[in-house]
Design a protein that fits this description.
Elements (H helix, E strand, L loop, with lengths): L39 H11 L1 H19 L3 H35 L1
Length: 109
């Protein structure tokens, strides 16, 4: 071992390779320029007035849609928006059927 040179932290020991550290890369995303509808109002209406369980699921998917919009994920936002709309339509249909059945039941008495 050659001790004539002063100890340096910049040179690796013999037989060892140096370590290169990459600088961190920060990726920022912007909200979508043309966002898809999140149907949150419709989901809240379905939750309160029509079908409680489907309303909760629709609210969850509406929130997922908003998150995807704010993170700039167009395809995911479309998928969640479509699911929320479908759940709202089904919940509204179930709610209307139940209301009609209640009205018919009261008229038959």
């Amino acid at each position: 071992m050659d001790r004539s040179q002063p100890f340096s932290h910049t040179r690796p020991y013999p037989g060892q390779s140096g370590v290169t550290v990459q600088p961190p890369v920060f990726v920022t995303t912007a909200p979508l320029a043309r966002p898809v509808p999140d149907h949150l109002g419709y989901s809240i209406f379905t939750f309160l007035c029509c079908c409680f369980p489907l309303g909760i699921a629709a609210i969850v998917f509406s929130c997922f849609t908003r998150d995807a919009i704010y993170s700039g994920q167009q395809e995911l936002a479309k998928k969640h928006s479509k699911t929320a709309l479908m759940l709202n339509h089904i919940g509204l249909g179930i709610g209307l059927v139940i209301i009609v059945l209640i009205i018919i039941n009261h008229m038959m008495k």
